[in-house]
Design a protein that fits this description.
By secondary structure, the protein is mainly beta. It has 1 helix and 7 strands.
Length: about 100
C-alpha cells in the first residue's frame, strides 16, 4: 500500500514475497541517518530502513494492476459528543500519583 501525502489517497497492489540475498546489496547510511540498500548489479535503490521510526521499506516497481482509492475526510468530531456516545465518566480514570 502506498499512501498519499495528505493521507486521503491510497494505491494498493500485490507482489510476490521473495527472500533477498544480502550479498547482492550494498548498504550505507544516508544523510537522514537511514540505512539504504542498493543493488550491487546496477546501483538501484532497493531498501530503506528508518531506525528512528522502526520502518523498513522495500522499493517495488508498481505494475499496472493496482487499485487506487480516495477516502473522504470526515468532519472534525466534537470531543464532548464522542465521550457521551461511548458512555465515558470520570470513574474510568484512577490517578496513581499527583
Amino acid at each position: 500500500m502506498i499512501k498519499g501525502k495528505t493521507f486521503d489517497e491510497f494505491m494498493v497492489f500485490e507482489t510476490d514475497t521473495v527472500q533477498y540475498d544480502s550479498e547482492l546489496y550494498e548498504f550505507k547510511w544516508n544523510k537522514k541517518n537511514n540505512l539504504e540498500g542498493h543493488s550491487k548489479a546496477d546501483g538501484k535503490h532497493c531498501f530503506t530502513w528508518q531506525p528512528h521510526g522502526s520502518q523498513f521499506t522495500i522499493i517495488e516497481e508498481i505494475l499496472s494492476d493496482y487499485t487506487a482509492i480516495k477516502v473522504k475526510k470526515p468532519d472534525n468530531l466534537d470531543k464532548k459528543h464522542v465521550l457521551e456516545a461511548i458512555g465515558y465518566d470520570k470513574s474510568w480514570i484512577t490517578y496513581l500519583s499527583k
